[in-house]
Design brief:
This protein has 237 residues and is α/β, with parallel strands linked by helices. The chain contains 7 helices and 7 strands. Keywords: Oxidoreductase.
Length: 237
């Protein structure tokens, strides 16, 4: 595939974000990824340091990205953290950090990058949410709230930007084999898999394949969509 499009991927240093950045690079996109602290090595992908919680950090990172790849055509918001625990044990700081990173951080990035898309009358936003946005999960009030919020963000942007040829969609991964689920107990893992139609966990590359389609020309009539990719988990919601 040959393309001149540029992509800005937050949270590209590992897991799903790294898989997305790598996949798009292999397809010929010019990719800049973000990392909060270090600048990891991912073949063909440039990195800028960015704390999505900080609007000034986002502004600087986007400016640096433009210096590397030019105007930004596509944004994949994948930066996210977890801080699980029952609500009664959660501190205000623990709740706020998750909301600031997962939800407000995505808004910060969208605000800083949308001008390029508006100028070119073409663009793609993809927000990486989670099936728990619809399903809910014990011990994840903060995480579920942040991921649910992304659906509202994406759909609102779909309305705001549709006339400019800009799409805005959400993907909702289920249980994907990344570092984020490394501490999941065997009991909880088996419980989730037992409620998954395909009876297995997913791979980051499978999420990347869906994102690849949503940012392509072929997906130009898809916007405001929330697409589960969880092997059938949570189909009843």
């Amino acid at each position: 595939m040959m393309t001149s499009r540029s992509v800005f991927v937050t949270g590209a240093s590992r897991g799903i974000g790294a898989a997305i950045a790598s996949d798009l690079n292999k397809q010929g996109y010019r990719v800049v990824g973000t990392a909060r602290t270090t600048r990891p090595e991912l073949e063909g992908v440039s990195f800028v340091q960015c704390d999505v919680r900080d609007p000034e950090s986002v502004r600087t990172a986007v400016e640096q990205a433009r210096e590397i790849v030019g105007e930004i055509d596509i944004v994949v918001n994948c930066a996210g953290i977890m801080n699980d625990g029952l609500l009664l044990t959660q501190t205000q700081e623990g709740v706020q950090e998750v909301l600031d990173t997962n939800l407000t951080g995505s808004i910060n990035v969208a605000r800083e990058t949308v001008s390029d898309m508006l100028a070119n009358k073409w663009g793609r936003f993809v927000f990486v949410s989670s099936i728990v946005a619809l399903w809910g999960s014990p011990g994840q009030v903060n995480y579920s709230a942040s991921k649910s919020g992304l659906i509202g963000v994406a759909r609102s942007l779909a309305w705001e930007l549709g006339r400019a040829g800009i799409t805005s969609n959400v993907v909702l991964p289920g249980l994907i084999e990344t570092d984020m689920i490394a501490d999941l107990s065997d009991r909880r893992r088996k419980e989730i898999v037992s409620q998954t139609a395909l009876r297995r966990t997913g791979r980051p590359e499978e999420v990347a394949a869906l994102v690849s389609f949503l940012v392509s020309e072929d997906a130009g009539f898809i916007t405001g969509a929330s697409i589960p990719i969880g092997g059938g988990v949570g189909m009843g919601v």
